Structure formats: structure tokens, C-alpha cells
Amino acid sequence: MINDLKKFLNEEQDPKAVEKLLVKVNGLLTSGEQVEYIAVQKKPAINLSPDCIALTNKRIIFCRPKNLGLSMDFQDYAWKDILDCHMKEGIMGATFSMKTIKGHINMLDYLPKAQARKLYQFAQQKEEEMVVFRREHDLETKRAIAGGGITVNAGLPIPQNQEQKEDPLETLQKLKKLLESEIISQTEFDTKKTEILSKM
Fold it and tell me: Is the model's pLDDT at 191 over the cut of 60?
């Protein structure tokens, strides 16, 4: 647990707040989900239970203590649902805000600037990944609606008339053997012969 805690104390986070939050957030994580970063609010006045943001590989979790820190309000947003994240630096710290694709906005103020920058950096990386994810999802949806299904060999032309390129003299010799064996008639031989000679 101590090694896990050290990972999140790089930008002057309050160790007690991070430890308390990490215990609670770890209980919320889904399979394959892990906490990537924690930012802790630092108000100018004494703040016994600061608000925090935990970033995981799957979502953003806003954590707001209630009842003097005896309870906690969690609001989480999956990365795929986040449209945009912003950071605004001021004199007393920075504000990190996010907006979902449905227009819901959430923010946390009085963040130390270094922590807000880390949040923003991580969020921008996830935003880029989600733009690609949404683009692919929209494309798949449009294909399904259009009845496109699965396209095999997309972009490769399929030859309509594949004729084997054979030496005309060899073809004539084969036809001659067929004529001599009485497999084809003289008329059929003459027709094919004329056709082959016209292509030469």
C-alpha cells in the first residue's frame, strides 16, 4: 500500500487525503481498472476533507467528502462519455473541468497547478483515444444501418472475366487434336481458329 501511495504523491498531494481516497476508490474499481492519478484540492483556508479527482484507465471519479469527511460522494464519468476537459490556472490554484457528450459539466477548483496540469495531460491523452473510438463506433453504426455487414477485400478490384493467357499456337494445336479425335466438328474448329487468329 505504501508503494501504491508514493506513486500519487509527486505533486504535493496531501498524503492522508490520498491514502483515504485510494482505499475507497480501490473498492469501486472494476475488473482491469486501475487508478492512474489522484489530484487533491488545496483551499487557502484549512480544509480537513478536501475534494479529489481520481483518474483511472476507464473513467474520471470526482470524490467529495460529506459530513465532515464521514461520508463520500462519488461522481464518475466513463472516458467514452467525456467530450472535453479544460484547465484554467488562477492566482490561488487551478480549476479542472470536464463536459460529457450529453452536456453535463463537472469541475473541481483550488487544485495545485502542477496537479491540474497532470490531470489535463492525462485527460487530453484519453480524449484523443476516445475521438478515435467514437469515430470507429459511428462508422460501424452507419455500416450496420446501411446493411453493409462485413466487407471482404475492400478496395481490391475483382476481375470480371479471367481468361487464361495461353499461347495461341498451343491452343490451335489442342483444337487440331480435338478435331482429329472427332471430339469437335470442322465448323467448331474453324470458328475457334478464326477467333484465336483475330486476337493475334
Answer: yes
Identity of the highest mean pLDDT range in 9-18, 52-61, 68-77, 165-174:
52-61
Percentage, residues of the chain above pLDDT 90: 23
**3-state class (DSSP) for residue 165:** coil
Tally the residues of the chain. Answer: 200
User: How many whole angstroms separate alpha carbon 85 and alpha carbon 123?
Assistant: 7
pTM for the full model?
0.63
Q: Are 56 and 29 in contact (CB under 8 A)?
A: yes
In the chain, the domains with their CATH numbers are: 15-145 (2.30.29.30), 168-199 (no CATH)
Write the DSSP string, 38-82.
EEE---SS--SS--EEEEESSEEEEEEEETTTTEEEEEEEEGGGE
Retrieve residue 165's grid coordinates. 493467357
Q: How many CB atoms lie within 10 A of CB 120?
A: 21
Q: Which H/E stretch holds residue 85?
A: strand 82-90
| Distance in angstroms (rounded) separating the CA atoms of residues 185 and 190 | 9
Write 116-119 long-range contacts (CB < 8 A, 24+): 116/39, 116/87, 116/89, 117/87, 118/11, 118/37, 118/39, 119/37, 119/39, 119/53, 119/55, 119/85, 119/87
